[in-house]
Amino acid sequence: MSTMLRSTLAALVLTSLASVASAQSPDAAKAFLEARHDQVNQVLQRAEGASRDRRLSQLLGDLLDYEALSEASLGEHWASHSESERAEFVSLLKQLVERSYKANLQRTLDYRVDYQNAERRGEKVIVRTSARSRENRRAPAVSIDYEMVQAGRNWRVVNVVTDGQSLVQSYRSQFHRILERDGWDGLLGKMRERLAAGG
CA 100, 102, 104 angle in degrees (round to 5)? Predict the structure, then answer.
């Protein structure tokens, strides 16, 4: 192998490694989140309708890891249920989380959102943001932290912490109480009731 060929191959390997490292960096997670939120916000400003809802669901489905959220929210109870039971639970939680996430992003259209910094914490990257009302500038900013993991070349949100309140921990506490009192069928029933009530 010639010296020139070896140098070319080495340069290609180094370039490839640099690209991988860049894609895995905390800043890459922050840029991905900001870009995806910008897309969602553009869709939210459209007139309401079926096509708008489908596009929002698609964008949020690419951003939120519903299965990871479901597993973390059930905690120790996840392993004791069948694949079909888990699939039904994931489907119900997806609808609840999607509805809540859309509503929160709709509200933040009236806020200035700052994407502050991102830091690696084990296998996750924490992207820290703050949202401040444009109308009531005296109101304190709301801190919203996104826990993200890499999925191929993209990133997925696995938890959201708002002013110190973890979405996963909140769901886990609620679900544990219901499971202890009403069992699995009772939990799924409560989730269906909440969806039917629009909550």
Answer: 70
